[in-house]
Amino acid sequence: MIHAEGLHKQFATVHAVNGVTIQARQGEIFGLLGPNGAGKSTTIRMITNIIHPDSGSITYSGAPFSDSIRSSIGYLAEERGLYQKSRILETILHFAALRGVAPDTARRRAADWLRRFELSGSERRRVEELSKGNQQKVQLIIALIHQPQYIILDEPSSGLDPVNQELLRSILDQLRDDGRTILYSTHQMEQAERLCNRIALINKGKVVLAGTVQQVKEEHGGNNVAMEFEGDGRFLRGLPMVLDANIYPNGAELALQPAATLNDLLPHISGQLQITRIERVRPSLNSIFIQTVRRATGEAIPATNSNSITHSITNSTT
Which of 83, 176, 240, 253 has the fewest CB atoms within 10 Å distance of its CB? Predict the structure, then answer.
């Protein structure tokens, strides 16, 4: 378990981390979420002892940071730190040696990880020859090759396409099931919703909501509608029963007035959009994230009904 209690960090006039308390338990993936500049990376750098907090405490399974704990951490930084001219296998073996992995063991593990990340046959290629996504895979291998108990990942899916994001998810699921403690920092809410057991959302250096994904969605439940359609849905923001709207190229998530029903909404969209799916849902983590950050920045967001609605309707008309 990683337990950070009351962390503070000030840089000049910026209070980057302001009283953050989080706890990542063994056998779970804990999501540290927030917009860019919220304080996530600063929090992670304090947890990994790269920088020291001005105040607060950090323990690993009840013990303070030490050299033995350092060797049991697998850390993926947001910024890439690979030697561009080095060959892939040489790079992996170099970092494995720094972690105290015996050469034969390192070669065996490297071959296994390269296979799992679909990089077999690329061992002698130089890092600079790889795509951004494949370089990220190499960094992930480096973070995992010494079989760490504590895995700390800062934006690990950066550069990965959807297929490789799914591959990463399956690997992290297995590591969680093996009893590892995983701290996963991201601003991509869809990934966090699918992957994390519990989350904390940081904004402006403070934790503004926390709990299991299900708890967070229940606490912020509202009269929400998810839609998929063909057409231009931008007009949905201006409908009288719509409090807030996240519009995507082929869909939308709408927060409706507390008393509004689908029957109120449908006449306004009939003939303007070709609806392929519409359902009443709890708000997505992405929607909660956007509304929470907007409130914190002072942008007015009307309150939504706290009742959870799970009734769904599917419409496949053409």
Answer: 240
